[in-house]
Design goal:
Helix content: 10-25%
Strand content: 25-35%
Low-confidence stretches: none
Mean pLDDT: 95
Distance between the termini: 8 Å
Number of strands: 4
Order of helices and strands: EHEEHE
Oligomer: single chain
Number of helices: 2
CATH architecture: 2-Layer Sandwich
Strand order of the largest sheet: 1-4
CATH class: Alpha Beta
Largest sheet: 2 strands, antiparallel
Shape: globular
Structural class: alpha+beta
C-alpha cells in the first residue's frame, strides 16, 4: 500500500520532529526553521506511525484507493 498524500497542518504542528524520528522510511526532514518537510512521499508505506505519534494531530496520511 502506498500513500496518496500526506497533509501536515502547519497551524497545529509545533515542530517537535517526532514524525521525522519515527518514520522507518525517512519520508520526512526538517529545515533550519524546524518545519517538517515531506521529502519522499513515494517511500511512504502507510504504517501510520507518524500520524499516531503526533501529539498535536497535525498529520494525516491519505491512502491510495485500491
Amino acid at each position: 500500500m502506498k500513500a496518496k498524500n500526506i497533509v501536515i497542518n502547519t497551524k497545529r504542528c509545533k515542530r517537535c520532529g517526532l514524525c521525522v524520528t519515527i518514520c522507518p522510511k525517512y519520508v520526512y526532514s526538517q529545515n533550519a526553521a524546524d518545519e517538517v518537510l515531506i521529502d519522499h512521499l513515494d517511500q511512504c508505506i502507510v504504517c501510520m506511525m507518524c500520524q499516531n505519534v503526533c501529539p498535536d494531530f497535525a498529520i494525516e496520511v491519505e491512502k491510495e484507493n485500491e
